[in-house]
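Justification of computing resources. Each target in the renewal requires a structure prediction run like the one illustrated here; the chain below, 65 residues long, is used simply to show the kind of job we budget for.
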Amino acid sequence: MAEGTIKRLTDKGFGFIDTGDGNDIFFHLSALDGVSFEELQEGQRVSYTSGQGPKGPRAENVRPV
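Resulting structure tokens:
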């Protein structure tokens, strides 16, 4: 599993993870594993697996480290 830092959260149930290599990856609240969207904070470290969504790469199985 890859790790990154939550860069931005929106009030619409999605956010972006800074992957550490200059890129961000999208995630949706439906991709969370063992945590609710309301428990996440910007700047928090998370682990995730890379997947493919209808509009491009996205993070799946997102959970706090």
